[in-house]
Design goal:
about 525 residues, alpha+beta, Arc Repressor Mutant, subunit A, 4-stranded antiparallel sheet, 16 helices, globular, disordered N terminus
């Protein structure tokens, strides 16, 4: 409804009339999309996250269509009776994840890069996209999975177990180590952790527990993943594992038969490739670009059963898959009946904005297995990981874990649950984000000082590592594995970039973690890497 005054527009918004000006050439469109939204004041989820989730849901279901203008933070704050900081935080997160864009001088708009064909399937929430996919393409599981789920009759379940997965070799952790994936162990609140552990040393926790995991940990973890990572899950879908590597092995064991094909990022996580090989399946690499996996390389007529991704921070190249591409990947997987294994590698450490929401919460939760770990956010020796699986697969995944290892250490689970529930976990994450951001700047400055002539740093505003690609014109013929060997002689540790490729590497270079290296020792360590390159060259 537009008033008679040429400079004033009247719009029905959030159950009341609001007054907005326009310049005569374009009318600011404001829609009544939040009239059914109310903040849950007694919820553990912050108001900012609630608003973010409400707007995200309305974009994905098509209630907020492409190019729709979003009211200003001032208008939102006034209508919702919240602070502008709350609104700005929600809008910035939506912007970071690609749901909305900013037009200079014109405010925020819903992104026009969301694939409309994907969004259409969400306009009828009672229609199951998964069911359509299963009926069309047979989104199947392995022989083991079928047996456990009662889809096959067999007494030979135990004969279908995978061989042991070889651990990715890691050198001894030292202060000047640039080993990827190792957090700052000295910064961990070990005394508080020890106090909680001591309190949990009681008879009630000294027996056996469910192989699915300690229920209080599964409950608090489900709550955390819903609020911080955008997952759609209940505690019944959470399985506690012995690290992320076991979670990967469980998923592959349930979904793949010997001889099946799995798609992986190229370059990508070595542990996933080894888990696939241990299953007796084939690996097919899909190239990675600046924005994570290159969706133009997805097979048009795929023969594989699943795809393994690190979409929120690609490992090792660091790219973050844009929202539009994440939706297109899900659309491709749904069309062809392919499972998605989402490894949320070091997703908590984003420095320019809050962590990017997981793919599992974008609408195809029954087709995505989400994997995470406490190794990066707490400490590696804890050996606790987790997976969030579709309800259909819970029984099969728990059975697979039972055959592999049984229960995870219950006292460690109880300590972790209390560490999260007490608020210590979030405070620790906040401190680590600030610390790692400083370390990221320190390693980049050191690389620019000592290695700018021979290597190019590749990084995003996230994670615990950077990649150095060698300048081929300068270091012609230099093998990065030889450089790593020379680094080890100088008590400096890192990884050869070429080892992350499925086949012939596109680049020679280094993967350098910075989290467990003191800022004061960063410059000297990078200088020694320069010496190692000189020794090889």
């Amino acid at each position: 409804m537009i008033g008679s005054d040429a400079s004033i527009g009247y719009y029905w918004f959030l159950g009341k009339f609001q007054f907005f000006g326009f310049d005569g050439s374009s009318i600011m469109i404001v829609v009544d999309v939040l009239r059914d939204f109310e903040f849950e004041t007694d919820s553990s989820v912050t108001l900012q996250v609630q608003l973010y989730q409400a707007l995200k849901s309305r974009i994905l279901t098509g209630r907020l269509t492409a190019s729709t203008r979003i009211p200003s933070s001032r208008q939102f704050a006034s209508s919702l009776s919240v602070s502008r900081n709350t609104v700005n935080g929600a809008l910035e997160q939506l912007k970071a994840e690609g749901y909305i864009k900013t037009k200079q001088g014109a405010g925020h708009y819903v992104s026009d890069e969301l694939p409309e064909s994907f969004l259409l399937v969400h306009k009828k929430p009672d229609v199951s996209l998964l069911s359509k996919t299963v009926n069309a393409k047979g989104l199947g599981v392995s022989g083991f999975g079928c047996t456990v789920l009662g889809e096959l009759v067999s007494d030979e379940v135990s004969n279908d177990l995978p061989i042991g997965v070889e651990r990715v070799e890691r050198s001894e952790v030292k202060n000047t180590s640039f080993e990827a994936g190792v957090p700052d162990l000295k910064a961990f609140p070990i005394k508080k952790w020890g106090q909680i552990t001591s309190d949990n040393l009681r008879i009630a926790l000294m027996g056996y527990d469910s192989p699915q995991g300690y229920e209080p940990l599964r409950r608090v973890l489900a709550d955390y993943l819903r609020s911080s990572r955008g997952l759609e899950c209940s505690l019944d879908q959470v399985i506690i594992t012995v690290g992320a590597q076991q979670a990967s092995s469980i998923a592959l064991h349930v979904l793949l038969n010997e001889g099946d094909t799995a798609y992986v990022e190229n370059p990508g996580y070595i542990g996933m490739r080894k888990a696939i090989a241990a299953r007796g399946a084939n690996v097919q690499g899909i190239d990675v670009g600046e924005e994570g996996i290159d969706i133009t390389q997805l097979p048009s007529n795929p023969t594989g059963k699943l795809i393994c991704l690190t979409p929120t921070h690609q490992y090792p190249m660091g790219g973050i898959v844009p929202l539009g591409n994440r939706l297109r990947i899900l659309q491709w997987a749904a069309t062809h009946g392919i499972w998605v294994v989402e490894d949320d590698y070091d997703s908590e450490y984003h420095y320019d904005h809050k962590p990017i929401a997981a793919m599992q919460g974008l609408g195809l939760k029954e087709q995505v297995i989400y994997i995470g770990s406490f190794s990066k956010v707490l400490f590696p020796a804890l050996r606790l990981g987790y997976m969030v699986v579709p309800k259909r697969l819970v029984k099969a995944c728990v059975a697979a874990k039972t055959y592999m290892s049984g229960q995870s250490p219950i006292i460690d689970q109880a300590t972790t649950a209390e560490f999260i529930q007490s608020g210590l976990f979030l405070r620790h994450l906040h401190r680590m984000r600030l610390l790692y951001e400083k370390k990221l700047q320190a390693i980049l400055e050191a690389c620019n000082k000592h290695l700018s002539n021979v290597a190019i740093p590749i990084y995003s505003g996230a994670g615990m590592h950077i990649v150095l690609t060698f300048k081929s014109a300068v270091l012609k013929g230099v093998n990065d594995k030889d450089v790593v060997h020379a680094m080890n002689k100088l008590q400096i540790y890192g990884s050869a970039l070429s080892s992350y490729y499925v086949n012939t590497p596109k680049y020679q270079g280094l993967v350098l973690g910075f989290a467990n290296t003191d800022v004061s020792k960063m410059d000297g360590g990078i200088d020694k890497i320069g010496q190692a390159i000189d020794n090889v060259f």
